[in-house]
Every structure is written in C-alpha cells, then in structure tokens.
Amino acid sequence: MTAETSQTLDRGLRVLKLLADTDHGLTVTELSNKLGVNRTVVYRLLATLEQHALVRRDLGGRARVGLGVLRLGRQVHPLVREAALPALRSLAEDIGATAHLTLVDGAEALAVAVVEPTWTDYHVAYRAGFRHPLDRGAAGRAILAARQQGFGDPGYTLTHGELEAGASGAAAPLLGVTGVEGSVGVVMLADAVPERVGPRVVDAAREVAEALR
C-alpha cells in the first residue's frame, strides 16, 4: 500500500477476487484468515458490498459474488473489443478470411468483435453478437480445449461445417488473461483450413492476450 491508495477499497476488491475464485462461497472467518484482518472488518466490507449488490450471503452465511457484477461486466465487452481490433484486422487481411474474437457467455460462445478482409471477392458473413454452443465451432472448441488443458497451451482447433455448411474454422484460446475466457479465430469458405492458418491464429490470440493484460 502507498499513500495514494485506499486500504479499505483494496480490501474490498480483494474480497471480490477471493469470492470470484471459489464456487462454494466463503465464510466471514475464512475471509478474515485470507485477508489477515479481524472479523469486524470483514463484516463491514461485506455489508458495504451487499448494498451495491456486488456480494450476497446465503442462509448459511457464506458470501458469494452478487448479481451486481453483471452490470459492471456488460461494460467489459466494448473495452475488450477495442483492444482486440488491431490484431483481428491484421489477421483478417493476412489470411483473407473473417476474423473474430469470441468470449464465453454462460454455456455459449459469443462473438464480440468481427473483422472482415477488405481485398477478397467473397468471405463468410459473421456478425458480432452471433452465439453458438461451446461444443460446436472452432471458437467454442478452442475454449473447451484450454479448459481441459489447464495451464498448458492447447494450440489451435480446426473444424468444418459445424456452424455453416461449406465453412471451415480455426481458433486458438486466449491464455493468461485474468477474468477473460475466450478465443481468436477465422472462418472461411473452404473444405479445409490451409496449413499456415493455425499457427497464424495462435499468434493473433497471443497478440490479443497481450493487449488485454
């Protein structure tokens, strides 16, 4: 902590991060131990966060992240999209295919940024806001592969005809970006993805990840 920072705000943010990292919630005692402060401080922090719907407590007294964080989260997509656009433009122009950034939204994959190439005669029409199940299409499958791989690098994922007949896709997951689960990919009208596309998509995903850190 420095003279320019707020200790109370810092503790409140640490509470939110701790709760975000657990599926079953934390008790006041558990939070007190993790933060290294007494229970009275934790009660005050939780009460304040509850007033803003950022934390909720169940009947057993366990604290969890509240629905108020969803209102804050809606503002994340524009920021992520803006950060990703340079890498997506470069990818689309280089490959000559529609490039996209896809994030997890519940059980679905949601395209939040799409860039189409400027020099091709035709390309796949793919729009921001398009949703599909995580287990269909290269974008969703790349995200699932990253989940299964854990801390390793799953590389890239290739698919054909899963979302649109005659279209092939390649995608690589975003790695090392706290709080963001997604992938970068391309979709093209082809029977198979050219060999150079997979590694190029991995590079683009790495560029986006670095821009978001």
TrEMBL record:
GO biological process, alphabetically ordered: negative regulation of DNA-templated transcription
Tell me where in this chain the HTH iclR-type domain is found.
6-67
Ranges for domain IclR-ED: 68-213
**Keyword set, alphabetical order:** DNA-binding, Transcription, Transcription regulation
Q: Which residues form the signal peptide?
A: none
Q: Which SMART domains match?
A: HTH_ICLR (SM00346)
Alphabetized InterPro entries for the sequence: ArsR-like_HTH (IPR011991), GAF-like_dom_sf (IPR029016), HTH_MetabolicPath_Reg (IPR050707), Tscrpt_reg_IclR_C (IPR014757), Tscrpt_reg_IclR_N (IPR005471), WH-like_DNA-bd_sf (IPR036388), WH_DNA-bd_sf (IPR036390)
User: This protein's superkingdom?
Assistant: Bacteria
- List, alphabetically, the PROSITE patterns matched: HTH_ICLR (PS51077), ICLR_ED (PS51078)
Pfam families (alphabetical): HTH_IclR, IclR_C
Gene Ontology MF terms: DNA binding; DNA-binding transcription factor activity
Q: Does the record's keyword annotation contain Transcription? A: yes
Q: Which PANTHER family match?
A: HELIX-TURN-HELIX TRANSCRIPTIONAL REGULATOR, ICLR FAMILY (PTHR30136), HTH-TYPE TRANSCRIPTIONAL REPRESSOR ALLR (PTHR30136:SF24)
Protein name (database record):
HTH-type transcriptional regulator KipR
Q: Which organism is it from?
A: Streptomyces griseorubiginosus
What gene is it encoded by?
kipR_5
